[in-house]
Task: structure prediction
Amino acid sequence: MAAADIAQAPPVAAPTGTGSVGIGLHMRVAWRNLWRNGRRTWLTASGIAFSIFLCVVFMSFQLGSYDGMIDTATGMMSGHMQVQQVDYFDDPKVANRIAGGSELLRELEQSPDVVAAAPRVEGFALVSVGERSFGGLVMGVDPVREPEVSALSKQIVEGEYLPRTDSAYVGKALATNLGLKIGDEIFVMGSALEGGVAAALFTVDGLFDTGQVELDRSILQVPLSAVQSAFDLGDSVHRIVLMGRNANDATAIAERLAPALPEGVRILDWDKLLPELRQMIQMDAVSGLIIYVLLVAIVTLSVANSFTMTVFERTREFGMLIAIGMRPGGIVAMIVIEALCMWVVGTAIGAAISFSLMVGLGIVGVPIAGLEDMAGQFMMPERIHPEVSFFTLGTAPLVLLVGTLVAGLIPALRVRRLKPVEALREEE
Result:
């Protein structure tokens, strides 16, 4: 080629890192650069993997325990939802009742959202055996429908669950206080609807023990019709307890059922019925969030430290690239891509181990060994089934993706201030 032709030839464009060819080149170079110091790469990727593993495991068990707590608490007495007279929740007296309870019960049972429904009548009364008397909550229930919305009937420790129209199902602690045993007669006396005396005599046919002392020493279940008759309530009820397919759907179901309810009647979901449970979950969630933030921060600092060392070790290399025409933005992009590749390696390892472990434990559950009594007292399930979902499996990797990119970007920005001559002299 003649000298004149060489002089007229267009200059070769320096790589800028844009376009599909530039991105592909950066990806290949970044991946190769990662393994120039394989030990450091594996240590950093292992830190990302371990962090993802811990976050996924903790979040899965945490959310799984919440579901178990909700199912245990709502399944014991409250149900997923309750239909009540508007004043009954704040002022649970006999007069705050729902008239025509049978008709409303039939209408609610026809809803496709309602899996089970059961009526209840309640009244505070004096429970007596001989010369011993204690205050308690007399609860009239339907012996057939009640077991579908409450696990109380399954906590039986002696006898049967309301086999007759004059049966009584008594808490073990209350029975101990009264000196009761199966077959004894128990006298109940309270205030009727119109201010008269409500009195009834029942035979103890069953004893239950839930592990929650406040229930075991205060609850007395008897057939619904007996309480309605004793308290002059007719067809009125105080609660209609509802169960949906899932406790997490209770709020949405309540909103759909509310417009069809009679005037002066409302529906409450478990969140309003058990505010202490929601507070317990929120407090635990906040403490868990603090742990996750600290864990992610530690890993992010570890990645930032790794790339800071990389930038200092490769200062001369970066100076040479700038000297031959590569833009500083292209070098920054390459370092960020290296951080992304390291995140991919760590995430692949951590997610694979976490997913395989959590799926298996989610099916069989993990027993709370040695804490059976405390589980009942604190509304905890006997087995925790970790929740395996996109949220539990995807949150930690996505958060760490942001942290890793930021960690790689911060030391890479030093490249933008590099002066080629000074950089080339640094390691001479």
Observations:
- The radius of gyration is 34 Å.
- The first helix runs from residue 3 to 8.
- Residues 48 and 299 are 6 Å apart (CA to CA).
